[in-house]
Prior knowledge:
By secondary structure, the protein is mainly α. The protein has helices at residues 14-33, 53-85, 87-124, 149-168, 172-185, 190-204, 225-241, 248-273, 286-313, 319-346, 353-376, 380-386.
Amino acid sequence: MQTQPLHPPTERLHGLDAVRAIALLLGLIVHAAMSWLPGAQYFWVTHDTSPSAWAGLVFYVPHMFRMLLFFLLAGFFARMARERLGANAFMRDRFSRIGVPLLAGWFPVLMAILGVGAWSLWLANGGSMPPTPEPPPLSPRNFPLTHLWFLYALLLCYAAALLVRASVGRSSIAMQFADAITRLLSGPMGPVLLALPLGLAMALHAKWYAWFGIPTPDQSLYPNLAACIAFGSAFGFGWLLQRQPGLLQHWATRWPLHLALALLATAGCLHYIGLAPRLEVAPAGLETFAYAAAYAFAGWSWTFALVGLGLRFLSGYSRVRRYLADASYWIYIVHLPVVMALQVVLSRVHWPWLVEFVLALTVAMALLLASYDLLVRNTFIGARLNGRRKPRGLEQR
């Protein structure tokens, strides 16, 4: 069974583009909130003198779903590109637009983050550097990918998808089975079915800090099992959804249900674990699994709801949304040291946390948009990140 296409294959999917940009830009909000979290001195480059548990709400809710949402859409758009380009051209395109930014951006971003961290330590120590231990040598198990881990994970997902596709070939039985699974997962029970394996993986993860959700695979070239299940299943589901894109129309009509379930599950998780970060390892047991499953269900319900909302309300062409969709990739790659530097500056003042947070977010966004417009959009960097831009008259396609 094949459903009708969501849009003609040459038409840009503006609603999904907008939701993908939202997923990336939410990362800016999440990271901007971190220095105001209670206990930030134990896990972040700087901590503010005006912490607030309400900053925990700003961090906690988008962190539940933003990367699930991103990898779902990444899988959807990846298969679309694979079908349009063919396998060899697809691999070249993904290396150019994902691999090269990772290789070119990782070291400068890491050095900028370390520089901001050293500046923060210098200020906190009264203008001199405190003694610090030597970092362990780099190895595959100890490799600071920073927030650019998502690029590395995408490359792994592309490789896995192409290997599975090559292994299966054109088996009609395999395709029919995949389509049946996709229809099941895209239905009303989808968030439950997708949440159960992820919840189990998180609950069984060694040293799982439950408040922070899916363990971020940013410190090793070997991603942890929970992250593999979370982002691998999201990418694979998105890839398979692109075979039957008409299924997404059901999400556009069911978004109120998924949003209500997301809000209820999120409220339940927050009631259990609290607004402020818990910095202790979750104990093994049924209670931890129940929380992990509820957390995963909330994340997937948010994902279904936001995709549905995007298709329902953002599918028309908008120059502003198109611009932000193009800019969001660059913004996410370079945002972290900029945000951290602003957090260090604002840690020296004593204003209400919300004023400082909004100021950090506003200044960071202004600087990042300016850098995109002046240094990236109409240059070889923009062509590398976003592909060649169409003439203005063709942008709506």
